[in-house]
Amino acid sequence: MKDTAYWINHLNLQAHPEGGYYRETYRSDEIIAMAALPNRFSGDRNFSTGIYFLLDKANISAFHRIKQDEIWHYYDGSSLSIHIINADGQYCVKKLGINIEENEEPQVIVPAASYFAAEVNNKTSFTLCGCTVAPGFDFADFEMPNKQTMIKLFPNQLSLIKIFTRL
Asked: Which tens digits make up the pLDDT trace of 73-90?
C-alpha cells in the first residue's frame, strides 16, 4: 500500500520548513535578470521551478507566503484544504483534489503575496501533490511569520492563525 513512508522513500523527499516533505523536481536552466523582474525580487530568478510536496495527517503546512503565484497539482491520497489570506485580509479556502462534486479542483492557484497554509482533509491519510512557481522559487522569496505577526496583520483570523502557525 502506498502511504507516507512509501512516497518519502521512493521520491527521496526531505522535511520542508513550512511542514511536510518535498523535493525539487525542476528548475529551468534559463534565468530572468533582476532588472526585468518586479521590484519585490532581490535577484535573478529561474523561469520556473517545480517540487513534489507531501503532507501527512501529522503535519500542517504553516502560514507562509512567497512573492510569486504558486500552482498546486493533485497527485495521490486525500484531498487538501489550502487556506489563503490575501493582502487585504480576505480569507478563502480552496480544496485540492479530484472530487469535483465536493468543490475540489486538481489544480489550485495561490496568488502572489498571499499568506497560505494547508491541511490534509482525511486525517488518517496523506496528500501527495506538486507545486509550480514562476518566476522560479528562491528561499529569499519565502516568509513564514510567527503567530504574533499574523495576529497583528489579521486579528479577525485568530482561530486559523492558532492552528496554522508554528512559532
From this structure: 999 999 999 999 998 899
